[in-house]
Amino acid sequence: MLKQELGLKQQQRLSPLQIQTIKLIELPIQDLEQRVRKELEENPVLDDSPSESSDDTEDELPRDVSLSELKDDDPIPTYNLRVNNYGKDERPQYNTFSVKQSFTQSLMEQLGFRNLDEHQHAVGAFLIGSLDEDGYLRRDIDSLVDDLEFRANIRTTPEELEEMLSIIQEFEPSGVGARDLRECLLIQLHALRQTPDVKNATSILTDYFQDFSNRHFNRIMSRLNLDKDQMKAAMDRIVKLNPSPGGQVDDSYNDQAQQVVPDFVLDLVDGELRLSMPRFSIPEIRVNKKYAELLMEAAGSSERQKKEAATFVKTKLDSAKWFVEALKQRHNTLQSTMQAIIDYQHEYFMDGDESNLRPMVLKDIAEKTGFDISTISRVVNSKYIETHFGIFPLKYFFSEGLENQDGDEVSTRELKKVLQELVDAEDKHKPLTDDQLVTQMSARGYKVARRTIAKYRDQLGIAKARLRKEL
Fold first, then answer.
1. In sequence order, what are the beta bridge partners of 285?
2. What is the pLDDT of residues 445-454, one digit of tens each?
């Protein structure tokens, strides 16, 4: 027997304006410029051209349009479709800041320099796309063969993949395309001039990698018949190799660097911090005069074609209204959020001293601004600020905190800085264990548990004590 029940369910739905605003907030200024221009191309109601004459009288200028004049069943309030969120840019051209060319871009460029046919190039591109962020190929060859056929419709063989991988392993940065750390280091050694210390280093990694990993130096010296100086020279070669070739691109590729445009500029003027959001090349948009007049002409008309035209313009005007209002809300949200960050980290922004960077999480700024945490996250993502002491992504200013022995809260960034200093200053013949690092941190006034030291050490890329030991 079927049973029907009547109930109420409360469900929150985002309005078109809210959806538009969320999408715009996420965009950094370069993407925003493209988005605005795309909207201008697709919506004829929007216009970015300047007024025809600055001497126009009030009657000659396009007046605000009220869609209620169409005697529609769903009138929309009068709306001034014009936005001018940004002040005039004091600089004739906006500054751009180099960011190293992306890892994948660099490899694809080098692939293009090889004399490969279309099929080989496609296989090579797929392999490059399969590398992880450290530059390693973590998947086995057979799986990649299947993926190429099913996902890219490219038939290949394990032998062809191995051959193409060997070509990629010749690319810069050296070590890229390795399947594991051992292969990564050996690729780099093979690219060097084969001096005795390089050959010894190669033998160590080829035949005694496990002993090398465990720092069993005496066992290696005995089996390879090396004296202490020879062993030290070989180890010096190995420790200078890059275990994560995908982590950075060599400086020789900076000529074709990507450009980052800051969304905010912070100046220190007469001891006061002044925040601005330069307009750069984002056009001012307003309602198109011709379409406004068309809409007015159609008001009250019974002619079918004029009604259809008016309906079309009404739809575009709705879209324009939401877009312009979303731009305004984006500007206000970004400005309020950035100002809250500056107020929270005021002491740091005065001189850029990292020790003055307070612990700060998204929730702190959400509480100061009244925005949702998700909104703060969208503002922070992919945005940059130019300060008088450098260029920074907004994410840089956020870090968790711990209390020191005086009960004051310090940022994890400060703790990591102190930890790095302790490791840099340690005796490499007797490196500090995690327990000893806890003691050293405590002596400096920081209450840190051993597991916290281990976590921060991993995040900083610092190996365990036995792996930092030198001869």
1. 83
2. 777 888 888 8
With a threshold of 0.85, does the pTM exceed it? no
DSSP H or E run through 272: strand 272-276
Rounded to the nearest 10°, the torsion over CA 461, 462, 467, 471 is 120
DSSP reduced 3-state for 275: strand
b/e string for 197-218 if b means 16 or more Cβ within 10 A? bbebbbebbeebeeebeebebe
Residue 89: is it exposed, middle or buried by C-beta count within 10 angstroms (0-12/13-18/19+)? middle
CA 115 to chain centroid, in Å, comes to: 34
Q: Which fold has domain 401-468?
A: Arc Repressor Mutant, subunit A (1.10.10)
- Domain regions of the chain by residue span: 16-86+277-390, 103-251, 401-468
Enumerate long-range contacts of 422-426, CB under 8 Å, 24 or more apart.
423/457, 423/462, 423/468, 426/468
* Nearest CA among 71, 83, 8, 41 for reference residue 322: 83
Tokens 């033998």 sit at which residue?
A: 203
139-186, pLDDT tens digit by residue? 888 888 888 887 778 888 999 999 999 999 999 889 999 999 899 999
Q: Check: CB of residue 128 under 8 Å from CB of residue 111.
A: yes
